[in-house]
TrEMBL record:
Its EC number is 2.1.2.11. It comes from Rhodanobacter lindaniclasticus. Its main location: cytoplasm. Mg(2+) binds at residues 55, 94, 125. This is 3-methyl-2-oxobutanoate hydroxymethyltransferase. Homodecamer; pentamer of dimers. It comes from the Bacteria. It catalyses: (6R)-5,10-methylene-5,6,7,8-tetrahydrofolate + 3-methyl-2-oxobutanoate + H2O = 2-dehydropantoate + (6S)-5,6,7,8-tetrahydrofolate. Pfam families: Pantoate_transf. One of its GO terms (cellular component) is cytoplasm.
Length: 276
């Protein structure tokens, strides 16, 4: 913790093996995005388990229409800022678009996000052959990997928009196969985004690693939201799966605590935040 004069809450550090134990014990995992030290500290103080420096910063911080313009330098800058606001919260950073172009780039990006900026884990989208290779290469160098499947925003042009994935049987079966493949490659956490409730349930049951859902239904081992969505400050339309937790509350701290409570109790996501 770098922030001066901070009143540190007494928390046990969240670790990668600790998340696996939470899945085994049926304790739901809470995760939110953060992009700067001040909001990172709000997550820390509220007892959120995992902070994600998402490339969604390209949309909610920079104002772009997609995550594609975000650069590795920008991810390193934001990850380092978030790291200074955290102590016990596990820090995950997204690999930006095209940082997965080959294993050398994946490792160079991982080294910057983990070694220079202070992430404990790096997140990489998809399960293509070159991505599986990247997951294995990072894992072999002791940089734990969070996989990301389903509505992977870096594939927005392939999908033709931010569309729910895995609605057809063949696509759903392929997503289960992909989840097993990223786990076999070494991934220790999996974000499932924008899939029907039943597929979120299937994937969560199929893998041993914890599955964190966003628009993937209530059966995942944990939930993640974009911070700006859950504070109701996203410019324009929020995704249907998000919820404004600041509405009716009087502080950012209260909103984040309510989110954590609702994820842990299973009250969030409700049916109106889910896809069938
Ligand atoms: N503010 C924000 N929140 C996010 O959750 C988020 C980002 N930005 N940027 C990166 C990606 C993009 N995401 C998005 C963005 C929009 C929808 C969306 O509008 N979905 C439609 C459903 C479309 C369908 O039914 O196929 C919706 O109504 O929610 C979904 C995911 C998720 N991530
Ligand atoms: C929405 C989450 C999972 C993400 O990847 C991001 O914020 O960039
Ligand atoms: Mg992302």
């Amino acid at each position: 913790m770098y922030v001066q004069n901070a009143n540190l809450p007494d928390r046990k550090p969240v670790t990668v093996p600790g998340l696996r134990a939470m899945k085994a014990q049926g304790q739901r995992i809470t995760m939110l995005t953060a992009y700067d030290a001040s909001f990172a500290w709000q997550l820390e103080a509220a007892g959120i388990d995992v902070a994600l420096v998402g490339d969604s910063l390209g949309m909610v911080v920079q104002g772009h229409a997609s995550t594609l313009p975000v650069t590795l330098d920008q991810m390193v800058y934001h990850t380092a800022a978030v790291a200074r606001g955290l102590s016990a919260t596990l820090l995950v950073a997204d690999l930006p678009f095209m940082a997965d172009r080959d294993v050398a780039h994946v490792l160079a990006a991982g080294a910057r996000l983990v070694g220079e900026a202070g992430a404990a884990m790096v997140k990489i989208e998809g399960a293509a052959a070159h991505v599986l290779e990247g997951i294995a290469a990072l894992t072999a160098r002791a940089m734990p990997v969070c996989a990301h499947l389903g509505l992977t925003p870096q594939s927005v042009h392939r999908f033709g928009g931010f569309r729910i994935q895995g609605r057809e049987q063949a696509a759903a079966d392929q997503l289960v196969t992909d989840a097993l493949a990223v786990q076999a490659a070494g991934a220790q956490l999996l974000v499932m985004e924008g899939v029907p409730v039943e597929l979120g349930r299937r994937v969560t049951a199929a893998v041993e690693i914890p599955v964190i859902g966003i628009g993937a239904g209530p059966h995942c081992d944990g939930q993640v939201l974009v911070l700006h969505d859950m504070l109701g400050v996203t410019p324009g339309k929020r995704p249907k799966f998000s919820k404004d937790f600041l509405a009716g509350r009087d502080s950012v701290a209260a909103a984040i605590r309510a989110y954590a409570d609702d994820v842990r109790s299973g009250a969030f996501p409700a049916p109106e935040h889910c896809f069938n």
